[in-house]
Amino acid sequence: DVVVIGSGIGGLSCAGLLAAAGKRVCVLESHYEFGGCAHEYAELGAEAPPTFKFEAGPSLYSGLSPDASPNPLKHIYQMVGEEPEWITYDKWGAYLPEAPEGYELSIGAENFLEILRRYGGPTAVADWERLASTLRPLAKGVMGLPSTAVRGDLGLLATLGLKYPGPLLAVLKDSSTILAPFDMESPDSPFRVDDPFLRNYLDLIAFLLQGLPAKGTLTAVMAYMVEDFYREGAVMDFPVGGSKGLIDALVRGVTKREGCDARRSTRVEKVVVEGGRAVGVETRKGRIFATEAVVSNADLKNTFDLVDRGVSEAFDEERDRLLKDVPLCKSFMHVHMGVPAHAIPDDAPPQWTVVGPTWDGPIDAPGKVVVVSVPSKLDPSLAPEGYHVIHAYGAGNEPYEPWAAFETASGRNDSPEYRAFKEQRAQPVFDAIAKRAPAALEAAVVTQIASPLTHARYLNRHRGNYGPAIAAGGDVEFPKVTTPLEGYFRCGDSTTAGIGVPAVASSGAQCANALLSV
């Protein structure tokens, strides 16, 4: 019935919901691992110990272990009847311009107040308390409406209006506020923040969540974020098995259904269009026909490139408009390391974030924000006994332009110049690792550096991009899950909700809803 191109969280969420509704679904993934940007891969150490398991993408998760949660991915798991086991923890570390020596605290509102007292100015605590008191009432409506029930048609009245009348009315009442860009700078804004440290911190959290500073973020998202600080028993979550555990559960949600399948190493070459309608896909192994729809979980450019020009005038018009108008976030520098366990201090947290050397300039300046994750501290199965695995990355802040000179027709480049340039550009990432685990750099038995070219090759991301840089309140809107080409749909970070794990799960649900009756 439906072919889904790509097995990212958005594509698998869409496929799982369609399969649960009785549709015959086939997911086609070009990579040898499922998961898209959230895939996991294995690598042997230089001394050939057992396998290290490296995560290619997200490492920070929340709102997934509780049964009652506003996180759309949790809703997907509940609806498809599959879920990973969860490990919970509550401590993370940060190295900020005001705290170059670093700090490690449990998450939650009380501990955040302690951070503000230590590093903020005289108005920091009052600013935060005023902001929270203004945003938290808005969050009740936002968090009470599951985004997985959102539709783009009048069925919305049934999926939301009949089931969630209270939150829907609250959202409608506050819509002009929550759908506006978050404004903490204007003197007359109800969300004004005067303290520079708090402003910078909110920019950081917004950037880590969806790739843009706070002023480019919807007020609804900021309300969600602030409310999360006050969640009772607030913890961070981590899937057993790492991101592979996260993805495997979504794959099971598809493949356990009769007539459904998920295939790796199956690259889609083009979408087959007949009579002005998408009717299937062409792979290197042959054609697969879809009686109802083809869904692309590729990024925006690849979603368009899969369709020949000339088959739909309206689709070509949208192609030209969106590819011209939609700005892209930058890419990443990644460092993956396998290190002896003694190289990571026993009291080090599983994650720490490094910002610096100053807050000056844009939040996405190259190397300015680096996230370091040691997931084997949470799940030892990700590394051989006696070892740890490290995944550190510059968070969506590596421009593609310096890498264009190293492009090759095959996508591979093993030249000494390319390797040296990777080492140079990854230095802020190595420095961030050394903040808490300096011994790891010399002790590593495996070190791999990934660049924007790696993103482009393995994740099929145009110019290795993180996703669209569509700011709230701007002239450019996110593309919808529907397209002007009949039978062709899309989901993932290039649509609707944007970047981030909750957002792409939500987009997958909205795409499935567009294909299902109420």
From TrEMBL:
Gene3D superfamilies tied to this protein: 3.90.660.50, FAD/NAD(P)-binding domain
GO BP of this protein: carotenoid metabolic process
PANTHER family per the UniProt record, alphabetical: PROLYCOPENE ISOMERASE, CHLOROPLASTIC (PTHR46313:SF3), PTHR46313
Name recorded for this polypeptide: Amine oxidase domain-containing protein
Species annotation: Aureococcus anophagefferens (Harmful bloom alga)
